Amino acid sequence: MDHRGNTAEQREGEQSSEPTEAGEAQRQRLAERPWLSSYASGVPADIDEVTETLVDLLDTSVKRFGDRIALEFFGAETSYSELGEQVARAAEGLRKLGVKPGDRVALVLPNCPQHVVAFYAALRLGATVIEHNPLYTARELRHQFEDHGAHVAIVWDKVYDLVAALPADVMRGRIVSVDITQALPLSKRLALRLPVKRARESRAAMTATPSAKHVLPWERLIGGRKLSKRVVRPTLDDTALLQYTSGTTGAPKGAILTHRNLRANAEQGRAWVPGLSEGGEVFYGVLPLFHAYGMTLCLTFAMSIGARLVLFPKFDLELVLTAAKKSPPTFLPAVPPIYDALSRASSRKGVDLTSVRFAISGAMSLPVSTVTRWEEATGGLLVEGYGMTESSPVALGNPIGPSRRPGTVGVPFPSTEIRVVDPENPTVDRAAGESGELLLRGPQVFQGYWGRPDESREALLEGGWLRTGDIVTVSVDGFVTVIDRVKELIITGGFNVSPSEVEETLLSHPDVESAAVVGLPRDSGGEDVTAAVVMRAGTVFDAGSLRDYCRTRLTAYKVPKRVVQLDELPTSLIGKVLRRKVRDQLVADRKAE
Q1: SS3 category, 370
Q2: Which of 114, 296, 368, 526 would disulfide-bridge 364, Cβ 3.0–4.6 Å?
Q3: What's the mean per-residue pLDDT of the chain?
Q4: pLDDT of residue 493
Q5: How buried is 354 (Cβ within 10 angstroms: 0-12 exposed, 13-18 middle, 19+ buried)?
Q6: CATH fold label, 490-592
C-alpha cells in the first residue's frame, strides 16, 4: 500500500537537495519530529488518512486472499473465504437476536476461531464489541456488565453459568454458548472423548456443559443463511470496541475505540514493519485477543495483510513448539517471559525458531538480556514498543532495523506526536532532556471513557492530547525511555492491575485493618503484585489464607504474589496511604533478606 508520507531515503534526498519550498517544509518537519531520521528504511512519516472500517478491512482480505489460510487452531485450518462466510452467517444470527447498530455485544472467550468470527460479525452489524477476560470472577464480570449493558453475550461454555447467574438487570439479553472444541480437527475431537485420564483432563480444560436447560449454542447461531447486504454498514466514527482498562487510576472503565482508531493503528503497525509479505506471514496468537495488544496485532493487523493467524487458547510452551514444526511463525507479538521461555526451550530441545523475522514486545519492560537471548536463538529482531489501551494500543516503537535502541521504548509511530510536560500542570512543557509526563496525539487515540465524562476530560486534554501517566525522558533524536509512572498501576504479565481493586478486596477481609498494594520489579521484567497489611488487634496473620481469600474474588494475575505484615502503613497528613513509601520499604526489605 502506498503512503503519502516520505520514506527515509526521500528524506535524506530532500535534505541534500537545493533549497525548495518542499525541502524547507521537510526540514521543518524533521526539526519538529527529529525521530524521523531513525525510522527504518521505507517507513513513512505519516500514514494515509484512513478510509476503511474494520468491516471493510476483512472484506478486502477475503477478496484478496480468499484461498489462503486465515486461521489455524490445533491444526484445523480456515481459509479467508471460509472466514468471510462464517462472519456473514454469525452476523445474520446476531441480527435475528435483535442486535442493531450501536448495540453492545460482549465476548467472553479465549483465543479460538469463534472469537475472530464473533468479533467481526458484531462489527458487521454496526454493533460495539466488548472484550472480557474469560478467567474473570463473577464479581469482576458483574462490574463490567453493569457498566456497559450488553444486549448479547457470546461466551465460552466453561463460564456460561457465571454469566447466566448475573442478575436480569445486568445481563438483559441472550447468551450464546461456545464450545471451542468444535473448532478442533475431527481426530482431536474424537481423542478428547477417549476414556482415559489425560483425555478427560484435556476436555475439562477446554469445555464444560452449562447447567441451564435451554442454551443457545454457537453452531445454531451460525447455522442459518448469510447476512443480507441491505443491512447498514458501520462508519469510521462509529464505536467499534469498548476495551476495559484501569486507565491511569481506579477501577476498570471502558475505553471507547472507533473503527477509525483501530484501523489507523493497524495501518501504523503495517507501515512500521518493512519487508512484510502480504498473504505470506504467519502470526502466532499467543497473546489473548481480549487484551488490547493481542486484539490489534492479531485481530486487525494480521487480518489486514492476509496473514495466517495460528491461535492458542493460552500460552503453552509445548503447544507452541509443536505448532512451529507445522506452521513456522514469521511474526511473534508477545511479552518478555514468553520470549525467554521459547528461546531457552529452543536451545534445550533443538527446535528451530529462525523463521521468526519480526518480534514485537509490549505491555511490560523488555530486559536487554531477553533481547540478546532471543536474537541469538532466532537470528531475527526483537524490539520493544509502547502503548496503552487508550491509544488502540500502540503509539511508540523501536525501529525494526539497525537504529533500534534496546532499553528504550523507541520513537513515535507514523502520524503520532509526543510532548513531555509537567505532571502537575500538563499545560507546561518540559525542556528537552528533562523528565516529565508523556503526552500522545494521533489518529489511534481513543474517544474517552464509556459513561465517564469527568475522567475522560482528565485523560484527554485540549487539542486531543492523551495523558499517559508515565514519566519519561526523550533523547535529542526522539527515543523515549520510561523511568517512572505517575499512575500507580501494576503491570504483571502484560496486564494492568489496579492497586485500589486489590486493596478493597483485602479490606473486605474481617481481620485486615489496612492494606497497601504495590508492584515490585522482577528481574525478568514486569512486576509482582505485593500487598502490605496491618492486621486487626487480636487476629493472627496468615499470608496463605489472605492469598486464598483474594483468589476467590480476583482473577489469578491480580492475586498478590506475596503478602507481608507491617505494624503500620505510612500515610500523608490527611491519612492517605503512601504507596510509594510502602514500595520503597518493601524493596529495601527484599534487598536486606
Answers
A1: helix
A2: 526
A3: 91
A4: 82
A5: exposed
A6: GMP Synthetase; Chain A, domain 3 (3.30.300)
The three three-digit cell numbers of residue 84, written as one number: 468471510
Q: Write the burial class of residue 208 (CB in 10 Å: 0-12 exposed, 13-18 middle, 19+ buried).
A: middle
Please provide residue 522's backbone torsions phi and psi, each rounded to the nearest 5 degrees: -110, 155
pLDDT digits (tens, 9 = 90+) for 7-66: 444 444 444 445 566 566 667 767 789 999 999 999 999 999 999 999 999 999 999 999
DSSP state of 388: -
- Residue bearing cell 447461531: 221
β-pairing, 253-258 vs 239-245, is antiparallel
Collapsed DSSP state (helix, strand, coil) of residue 412: strand
Residues 313 and 120 sit within 8 Å (Cβ to Cβ): no
What are phi and psi for residue 320, nearest 5 degrees?
-65, -45
For residues 91 and 219, give the distance between their C-alpha atoms in angstroms, rounded to a whole number: 13
Q: Do residues 470 and 458 touch, judged by C-beta distance below 8 A?
A: no
C-alpha cell read off for 28: 521543518
Residue 247 confidence (pLDDT): 54
Provide the grid cell at 453. Answer: 465524562
Match 526451550 to its residue by C-alpha cell.
Answer: 345
User: Rounded to whole angstroms, how far apart are CA atoms 62 and 79?
Assistant: 9
Domain-wise residue ranges, the chain? 490-592
Cell representation of residue 389: 489501551
Three-state DSSP class for 496? strand
Pick the closest to residue 337 from 152, 525, 186 (CA basis): 525
- Cα separation, 521 vs 530, whole angstroms: 10
The reported pTM is: 0.86
Nearest-angstrom CA–CA distance, 326 and 328: 6
